[in-house]
């Protein structure tokens, strides 16, 4: 007697294999045309979701090659999530090793990763306990926008997805939402800007982060560095990448306790 688990596995293969197998259709004990209709319905929705999530990648590859990548993903990997939107990112994870080797389309991998990141950020919800920030204070602790995600690219795929120029060094792409809006924004940083971003999101103050970058590059805080840093920071705050600064609590800013001070009554 066929178990329910065997029937489920057969139906999964019918939906996701490159071609449905006669043995699986026979295992379901019903009109094969009915199961083939279900296959078309399931695959149609999945294909549509992935085309919607990666429209420029799909256009760059063309329908035949993009659909073949989806078919390979479904047959070799199959969706591992109950959230249908996640199949977009799963497809990119599955196809990326091959796309990264495409010499005719050297920017294909960057484009697919960029679109997948935008898709993921677009699905984020602004946290109900979002961090509170005061106005920018260079000595204050940086408050990072909680929706910011980033990736490194070698092509400006955010500007030109057909034939973008190759960048002089790896650049960082920041993708995020702004408070009160679910629109997705993009901000690109050159290598020095990327170092500042990393330092600021890990440091106790913007000033401390700048000092770390200066030390790492063995340079002095000359006028060129200060002007460039100020411009990057102003842009990041204007774009809501950093929401501002947070002051240290009074208990932290007051310094260590005086050991000679009297303790509490016992």
Helix and strand topology:
Layout: H1 4-16, H2 22-27, H3 32-53, H4 55-61, H5 63-76, H6 87-99, H7 108-122, E1 141-144, E2 149-155, E3 166-177, E4 184-189, H8 191-202, H9 206-216, H10 223-238, E5 242-246, H11 250-253
Antiparallel strand pairs: 1-5, 2-3, 3-4
Write a short abstract of this structure.
With 266 residues, this protein is α+β, with helices and mostly antiparallel strands. The chain has helices at 4-16, 22-27, 32-53, 55-61, 63-76, 87-99, 108-122, 191-202, 206-216, 223-238, 250-253, and strands at 141-144, 149-155, 166-177, 184-189, 242-246.
H/E element order: HHHHHHHEEEEHHHEH
CA radius of gyration is 26 Å
Broad structural category: alpha+beta
In whole angstroms, how far apart are the ends?
A: 77 Å
Please give the count of helices. Answer: 11
Helix content: 40-55%
Q: Estimate nothing, just give the exact number of structural domains.
A: 2
The 3D shape can be described as elongated
What's the main sheet like?
3 strands, antiparallel
Strand content: 5-15%
Strand order of the largest sheet: 2-3-4
Total DSSP E strands: 5
């Amino acid at each position: 007697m066929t178990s329910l688990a065997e029937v489920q596995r057969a139906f999964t293969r019918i939906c996701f294999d490159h071609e449905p197998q006669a043995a699986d259709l026979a295992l379901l004990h019903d009109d094969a045309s009915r199961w083939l209709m279900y296959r078309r319905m399931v695959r149609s929705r999945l294909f549509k979701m992935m085309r919607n999530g990666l429209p420029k990648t799909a256009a760059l590859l063309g329908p035949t090659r993009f659909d073949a990548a989806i078919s390979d993903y479904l047959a070799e990997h199959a969706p591992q999530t109950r959230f249908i939107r996640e199949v977009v990112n799963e497809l990119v994870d599955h196809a990326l090793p091959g796309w990264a080797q495409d010499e005719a389309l050297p920017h294909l991998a960057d484009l697919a990763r960029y679109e997948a990141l935008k898709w993921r950020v677009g699905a984020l919800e602004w946290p109900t306990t979002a961090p509170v920030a005061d106005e920018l204070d260079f000595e204050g602790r940086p408050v990072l926008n909680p929706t910011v995600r980033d990736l490194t690219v070698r092509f400006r795929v955010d500007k030109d997805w057909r034939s973008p120029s190759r960048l002089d060094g790896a650049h960082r792409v920041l993708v995020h939402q702004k408070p009160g809006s679910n629109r997705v924004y993009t901000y690109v940083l050159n290598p020095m800007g990327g170092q500042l971003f990393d330092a600021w999101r890990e440091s106790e103050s913007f000033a401390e982060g700048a000092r770390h970058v200066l030390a790492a590059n063995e340079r002095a805080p000359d006028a060129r560095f200060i002007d460039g840093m100020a411009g990057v920071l102003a842009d990041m705050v204007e774009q809501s990448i950093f929401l501002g600064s947070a002051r240290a609590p009074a208990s932290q800013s007051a310094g260590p306790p005086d050991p000679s001070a009297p303790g509490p009554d016992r």
